[in-house]
Amino acid sequence: MSSKIEDLSRLCVHTLTTKPWDIGTCVKNYSAAGIKGITIWRNVLEDRNLVDVKKMLDDFGMEVVSLARGGFFPSIDLRRREMAIDDNLLAIEQAASVGAPMIVLVCGADAGQSLEKSREQIAEGILRILPAAQSAGVKLAIEPLHPMYAGDRSAINTIRQANEMAELIHSEWVGIAADVYHLWWDPDLQAGIQRCGSHNNLFAFHVCDWNVPTIDFLNDRGLMGDGCINVPEIRSWVEEAGFKGYNEVEIFSDKYWATDQKSYLEKIKQAYLTKT
Amino acid sequence: MSSKIEDLSRLCVHTLTTKPWDIGTCVKNYSAAGIKGITIWRNVLEDRNLVDVKKMLDDFGMEVVSLARGGFFPSIDLRRREMAIDDNLLAIEQAASVGAPMIVLVCGADAGQSLEKSREQIAEGILRILPAAQSAGVKLAIEPLHPMYAGDRSAINTIRQANEMAELIHSEWVGIAADVYHLWWDPDLQAGIQRCGSHNNLFAFHVCDWNVPTIDFLNDRGLMGDGCINVPEIRSWVEEAGFKGYNEVEIFSDKYWATDQKSYLEKIKQAYLTKT
After folding, report:
1. Which parts of chain B have pLDDT scores under 50?
2. C-beta atoms of A217 and B215 within 8 A
3. Which of A82, A241, A265, B221 is such that its CA lies 20 to 30 A from the CA of B203?
């Protein structure tokens, strides 16, 4: 059984969840709604002075949970792999600048090579950026992605694969972001979460729902309660595994993005308190 | 290494692959193209006299590989579960009538209950129809479906789960249909296929490709060579596991359905000979 969620103290919202808002609007409205946790997607930092962004975050008392996202390490093209390293090093700087203690890694895949090869390149990539992450005090969270993204977004598609990768790298700076959307279908999920926690690798927990039917590969996620995922059960597993961090609401939804975002934020709070 | 495909003797095409054609047009054109194997989707049998269909299949020397599809056992509604049993019993009669030695089962899932519960109902459903299948001489092939279909189409999403189900039921009339589209991403696929063969449960092998990007959840499958699946490698695993049956081309594709189907059939033959 999951514990009841009593308040918003562990609620974090991803800026991409309210995609129509810029970073300033996110911060102002999340804060006014009583939401303290924020995961910042890098698109809202483009052309922004990060010192100003950091000051704004502090002024509103926001706690930055993560920066999203780094990764996309694999490529059949060496030059592109090097560009990915550079981009991840930039992400580490950005994370440090805005006070994010962690970066979520969407690890990547290249359809032109095997998944095994892509996983080798993911491990190489993480090891390459690890010293910079450690010096900056920024953790790296491997996010296993749903198998429907194996073609082009991630060659790490189950929590077992993420566990194996994190245990192979074996650094206190590298762990896992577990997202119900990607993992809910896995018959081994509870055991995988337990294993993740027992290695101190459970760094982040993302929630949303799987719509039935789902009509878009990227932007048709549901709000908790909209779909078929038993979010409270998975949260209970995460908590049993020792996780005490934020519950991060990460929803990509053309449907919700087309609605008034302030009303939507209220819906998120309601779904968080009653369906998460 | 996979063996080279030398000829069309093990090529089977699913009627839904050439969806614009009725059963008569499929049979006439497959036969003219030198394709002997056919898997018949039930939609092309609607309002047809099955005695006439069987005679036509025989006249053209076609070998029916499977009838697609039965299954969809789970429901939160008992009445719907009973309707599913009736529909599967009808499918067994249809299979026997057209000379299909096997029915492919898309096992089903109900988003209103857990995947575990749906799997229990799948096992119950298969056990309910098994005596009728056995008397009719029709085998039942459990097809594990990609995890992206776990919400509404199948609670059996990996070859391991299919193996477990088939081994639990433990009947020579129940086995597995392995489709590269659903299974390619699984890091345990080779071992799962080996296990399947060693229990004499590998009943069918379906091929197509995973397009990158994929734009539709159902009808954007690729022709072998279009996408990122290493079909020859998976075929080699299937053959190492002892499979000697047809390679069934099952492609749902709005793109290909919009083209001339005779030219498309030639493309299928080419892709079969060179990319499978």
Report:
1. none
2. yes
3. B221
| Rounded Cα gap, residues B99 and B76, in angstroms | 34
- B76: contact with A, CB 8 A cutoff: no
Phi, psi (5° rounding) for residue B11? Answer: -85, 130
What are B39-93's pLDDT values in tens digits? Answer: 999 999 999 999 999 999 999 999 999 999 999 999 999 999 999 999 999 999 9
Closest CA to A129 of A163, A87, A168: A87
Residue B148 is nearest to which of A146, A187, A227, comparing CB atoms? A146
Report how far apart, in Å, the C-alpha atoms of A275 and of each of A39, A248, A270, B234 are.
21, 14, 8, 41
Compute how many other C-beta atoms are within 10 angstroms of the C-beta atom of residue B123: 16
CA B107 to chain centre: 12
Residue A271's pLDDT band (cuts 50, 70, 90): very high
Contacts A112 to B, Cβ<8 Å: 228
Contact B148 A151 (CB under 8 A): no
In this predicted model, what pLDDT tens digit does every residue of A15-74 receive, in sequence order?
Answer: 999 999 999 999 999 999 999 999 999 999 999 999 999 999 999 999 999 999 999 999
**A114 within 8 A of A103, measured Cβ to Cβ:** no
User: What is the DSSP secondary-structure string of chain B?
Assistant: -PPPP-SSTTEEEEGGGGTTS-HHHHHHHHHHTT--EEEEEGGGGTT--HHHHHHHHHHTT-EEEEEEEEE----SSHHHHHHHHHHHHHHHHHHHHHT-SEEEEE-B--TTS-HHHHHHHHHHHHHHHHHHHHHHT-EEEE----GGGTTTTBS--SHHHHHHHHHHH--TTEEEEEEHHHHTT-TTHHHHHHHHHHTT-EEEEEE-EE-SS---SSSBEEPTTSSS--HHHHHHHHHHTT--S-EEE---BHHHHTS-HHHHHHHHHHHHHHH-
Counting every residue written for chain B, the total comes to 276
In three-state secondary structure terms, A271 is helix
pLDDT at A1 over 70: no
Q: Tell me, rounded to whole angstroms, the distance of Cα B274 from its chain centroid.
A: 22
Helix (H) or strand (E) holding A232: helix A231-240
Residue-wise pLDDT tens digits, B14-40: 999 999 999 999 999 999 999 999 999
Q: Where does the pLDDT of residue A2 fall: very low under 50, low under 70, confident under 90, or very high at 90 and above?
A: confident
Q: Measured between beta carbons, which residues in chain A are less than 8 angstroms from residue B148?
A: 146-148, 214
Query: Among B165, B217, B226, B233, which would you mutate to test the A interface (most chain A Cβ atoms within 10 Å of its Cβ)?
Result: B217
